[in-house]
Amino acid sequence: MTDKIALSPLPVAPRRGARNDRVRATLGVLVCLFLAGCHQPAPTPCLGPSYADRVIDPQAGTFGPFGDPNRAANGVRGAGDYGGGGDVFSLDQTRLGSITLAWSCGRVSDGPGADLAVFENAFRDEADPGFLYFEPLVVSVSSDGVTFIDFPHVYRGGRGGRARDPRSWIGFAGFGAVRFHEDSFGPGQGIDPFDTARAGGDPFDLATLGETAEAARVRAEGVAFVTLTAAERRGFPRIRGGSADIDGVYGRFFQGVQNHEE
Ligand SMILES: [Ca+2]
Ligand SMILES: [Ca+2]
Fold first, then answer.
1. Is the pLDDT of residue 60 over 90?
2. Ligand 2: distance of its center to the CA of 248 in Å?
3. Residues that place a CB less than 5 A from ion ligand 2
4. Quick one: pLDDT at residue 18?
5. Backbone angles phi, psi at 97, to 5 degrees
6. What CATH number is given to the structural domain containing 237?
7. What is the mean pLDDT of residues 191-219?
8. How far is the CA of 251 from the centre of ligand 2 (A)?
């Protein structure tokens, strides 16, 4: 969204698999609060594709409708190929340019194909359908809220006009126009949020995280947290007037639920 707030200077050098200590400390506290909630009666397990419905950080909203982080945890309501959905939380409204979400019903596991689907609000120009309005995101996952691993991503556009070419951004989210709408096509209503051709969004497969011990641990223990970070906060070019806007994140397979061959 184009609404902006003053942002504090932040380290911008691209890094893989790392967050600064301040983020770790903040998330550590919030994870403790999150885990404390586990003493409450167990929630209904995720029996099928389910969106992340808990906001871990930031917990407080800022100004305007796009400053409400709950809009990233209330399901996905896209506006189709030619319109930016409004049921979103703008990362412009965050101090660190990121949001961390979780599932109250379980942990995402690695099944066949994509395991996460990220929905931003990219859309095409109706007068020039070849032109895509997009705002890139780095997607990171964690099993413990302390160690986060980025999905592999690389930017190949340099500092010039190629930044506006979607092909310059490989492994980022924020490129799939969102056709999925919770109220019309929610689970059981005809469209699988992981049917990218029909639902839009950007799919991510935990199998692509790599072969490090940390990646193996996330796959073994399951994804408890997903963090979405505006690409420019990682030192990549800022290509439009605003940061990415988060509509929601779906998980496909969940630990302990026999909805695929584990
Ligand atoms: Ca997978
Ligand atoms: Ca939403």
1. no
2. 5
3. 71, 74, 87, 247-248
4. 41
5. 70, 25
6. 2.60.120
7. 96
8. 14
Q: How far is the CA of 158 from the centre of ligand 2 (A)?
A: 32
- Asked whether residue 9 is domain-assigned, the answer is no
Residue type, 6: A
Give me the mean pLDDT over the 89-100 stretch.
Answer: 91
Q: How many domains does the chain have?
A: 1
Q: Based on the number of CB atoms within 10 Å of its own CB, is 256 exposed (0-12), middle (13-18) or buried (19 or more)?
A: exposed
pLDDT tens, position by position, 107-118: 999 999 999 999
**Cβ-contact 138, 234 below 8 angstroms:** yes
Q: pTM for the complete prediction?
A: 0.82
The answer to whether residue 78 sits within a structural domain is yes
What's the domain range around 219? 48-251
Looking at all shown ligands, the one closest to residue 261's CA atom is 1
Indicate the SS3 state at residue 100. Answer: strand
The rounded Å distance from CA 125 to ligand 2 centre is 22
Q: Which ligand has the minimum distance to the alpha carbon of residue 260?
A: 1
Q: Counting ligands in written order, which one lies closest to the CA of residue 248?
A: 2
